[in-house]
Amino acid sequence: MADPFQMELWKRLTEAPGAPGFEGPVRKIMREYLSSYTDEIVTDNLGSIFGVKRGDENGPRILVAGHMDEVGFMVTRISDKGFISFQTLGGWWGQVLLAQRVQIITEKGPIEGIIGSIPPHTLPDELRSRPMEIKNMFIDIGADSKEEVEKLGVRLGQPIVPVCPFTVLANEKKLMAKAWDNRYGCSLAIELMKELHENGNHPNTIYCGATVQEELSGGRGAKTSAHLSDPDIFLALDASPASDVPGSNDGMGKLGDGLLLRIMDPTLI
């Protein structure tokens, strides 16, 4: 099992809500940890955050970053009977959503609910034989009217994230949680700053932290962070699918077999 520092860090990062554009709770955790290892914290106007470690000012400028946001949803409509429609923030496959527990992040606190799943034998034939479209799904928070939903603090435009507590599985080397993409990258950035703090000098200027809104566009937060830090080199810390499960192609990603290094950036070549 990982050491207690890592376990607490992963639990806090993965359980924090942080849909694209709503990364505040994750940023608060990043600031707390980064501030333990450097006195210089910088942010850009989109909300990306970095700790800075300065070695040789004439040496390379290095940007190291995960991204704080996770795939989520946004409230788009509240029906008269209190059911909540939503749109996706980031890429979702509709087949994994029905009966998923979620929480709506309101100003009064999180409101838990579930994405409704209609029993298949009550559906018309044309709907029973194909996956439910996301536009036809709804969230049930147990309210009976639009007024009751609004009284609870739910408003259009609020973010929604899955409910999946950090859990150690039967094999203690395996952990279950939401948002590994990319709170794991965030944790690596924090651990790098910890290592630099504890092990002295280096010949670089290092900006180390996490960006925002990667799940919406791939590079929105990374672009503003690059303007902020003006790096000579960028090391992106991200999560990749594991391809060692039944039905998956025999890809390179396998749990326990080490990191993956992308050798070509398709946006540049």
UniProtKB/TrEMBL annotation:
Superkingdom of this protein's organism: Bacteria
Keyword Zinc set for record: no
InterPro entries according to UniProt: Peptidase_M42 (IPR008007), Peptidase_M42_aminopept (IPR051464), Peptidase_M42_dom2 (IPR023367)
GO BP annotations listed: proteolysis
GO molecular function per UniProt: aminopeptidase activity; metal ion binding
Family: Belongs to the peptidase M42 family.
Any Pfam family matching the protein: Peptidase_M42
Keyword field contains Calcium: no
Keywords from the UniProt entry: Aminopeptidase, Hydrolase, Metal-binding, Protease
Name of protein: M42 family peptidase
